[in-house]
Design a protein that fits this description.
about 220 residues, alpha/beta, 6-stranded mixed beta sheet, 7 helices
Length: about 220
């Protein structure tokens, strides 16, 4: 479903990734680990094609970084759910509208939007907070809203960039429980993290980055 072939990436003439190759299969739960500055966030940005490799190829489903056209990128991104460390919620919209936004921009009908948004809010235990605004939520509730937004389009994979980085230990485990449940329902999860304790609680395959490349140990 996802493949990196001998990927090199430079940003501002600085080498970020060198000769990165790996594969993620349908329904897997995979961790991307490595020290700060190893390029974990850059790998995820390559997947939703916010960046493009200088060498090599990134393939997601039927899309290839070597062949994709600009007009196709929004269609690729609709197949991906992205969760960030800092939530990236719209502060002037309530929980329902933050989640619904991903559907409205694709022209989904209002009755279908309501059905799907309420379903995913129930999955993340936030249906009772649907009329609250982000500044009225705890950090864990904001991240659960972000996860609901990520899954409302039924993506083939969740890309999670340090999704527990701003949360305490107990709340982090709650978020991992939700991601684990989503994965067991068939959605692949690719999560960048430096939190080894979470990996011990929720084991998955590891892809290890060292500074600039793959950790072969």
């Amino acid at each position: 479903m996802i493949e990196f072939y001998n990927v090199d990436l430079d940003i501002d003439q600085k080498p970020i990734l060198r000769n990165i190759s790996f594969r993620i299969l349908k329904g897997e739960f995979v961790y991307l680990v490595g020290p700060s500055g190893a390029g974990k966030s850059s790998v995820l940005r390559l997947l939703y094609m916010d960046l493009f490799p200088d060498k090599g190829t990134v393939i997601i489903d039927r899309y290839s970084s070597a062949k994709i056209k600009n007009k196709e990128i929004p269609f690729l991104r609709r197949q991906l759910g992205v969760v960030f460390q800092d939530f990236k919620l719209l502060p002037d919209r309530n929980v329902f509208d933050n989640v619904a936004f991903a559907l409205r921009v694709t022209g989904v009908r209002n009755n279908e939007i309501k059905r799907r948004v309420l379903r995913v809010l129930a999955e993340v235990n936030l249906a009772h907070k649907r009329n609250h605004f982000p500044n009225e939520l705890s950090g864990g509730e904001q991240q659960r809203t972000a996860i609901a937004r990520a899954i409302v389009n039924n993506p083939i994979i969740i890309l999670a960039d340090e999704p527990t980085g701003n949360l305490d230990a107990a709340t982090s485990l709650e978020i991992m429980e939700i991601l684990d449940k989503i994965n067991k329902q068939g959605t692949a999860v690719f999560m960048a993290t430096h939190n080894t304790e979470l990996i011990q609680h929720y084991p998955g395959r590891l892809i290890k980055l060292a500074a600039g490349g793959m950790d072969k140990r």
